[in-house]
Design a protein that fits this description.
It is a single chain. By secondary structure, this protein is mainly alpha-helical. It is about 85% helix and about 0% strand. Helix 6 runs antiparallel to helix 8. The radius of gyration is 27 Å and the shape is rod-shaped.
């Protein structure tokens, strides 16, 4: 594997760099998203029970001690509970934009790495083909060995770029799957919270 990487030429290094950068962004997203999973739907139902049983201050304290989009949305809602259900809903809607941006942070950089890796691979292939023809011209002989070596080196960069893009695409889809599940959980949690606020206000 290492030998194939070296045979691919100088364009293999920037593709490797893009792969590492993409993995860093994917890792950051996974760590961030997984770290907030424990404050999901179960936490949301605990807060609604807390609101109905112990009041606003207890529920607010519990949200302040938690982390994640649901806790942040509930905290904003509890801070505006004196405005009634409509006021709470508006404040949650405004905060939801911030939470969505937080969930999708760095996703554009992952997409950029996915797009750039195969493009660099193709560029490396073109560069390798040019070098191969230069070698043929310098040798003044269309030798099968010269042609094969040049084409092999050229195609290795395309293969490596595509492999990097495929791996990052799979990881990106995994992150997007987690985000989609979190969005569904947030929607369910907010609906339950608004019902609890309505009961509390009445």
């Amino acid at each position: 594997m290492v030998e194939l990487f070296i045979d691919g030429g100088s364009f293999m290094w920037p593709i490797l760099g893009i792969f590492i950068v993409g993995l860093v962004f994917v890792g950051e997203r996974l760590i961030h998203l997984i770290s907030t999973l424990k404050w999901g739907e179960d936490f949301a139902f605990d807060i609604t029970d807390q609101l109905e049983g112990s009041g606003v201050l207890e529920a607010q304290t519990k949200c302040e001690q938690a982390n994640g989009p649901i806790a942040n949305l509930f905290l904003v809602g509890l801070e505006n509970i004196n405005k009634g259900v409509n006021g709470v809903e508006k404040s949650i809607d405004a905060q939801a934009n911030v939470e969505m941006a937080s969930l999708e942070k760095n996703m554009t950089w992952i997409a950029l790495c996915i797009a750039t890796a195969p493009m660099l691979g193709f560029l490396g292939t073109v560069w390798g083909m040019v070098s191969a023809f230069d070698a043929i011209a310098a040798a003044d002989n269309i030798s099968a060995k010269i042609v094969a070596e040049g084409i092999s080196q050229a195609l290795l960069t395309t293969a490596f770029g595509l492999v990097v893009a495929v791996i990052l695409q799979i990881l990106q889809n995994t992150v997007l799957y987690i985000i989609d599940n979190q969005i569904v959980s947030i929607q369910k949690a907010v609906n339950a919270f608004l019902k609890a606020v309505e009961k509390f206000s009445n």
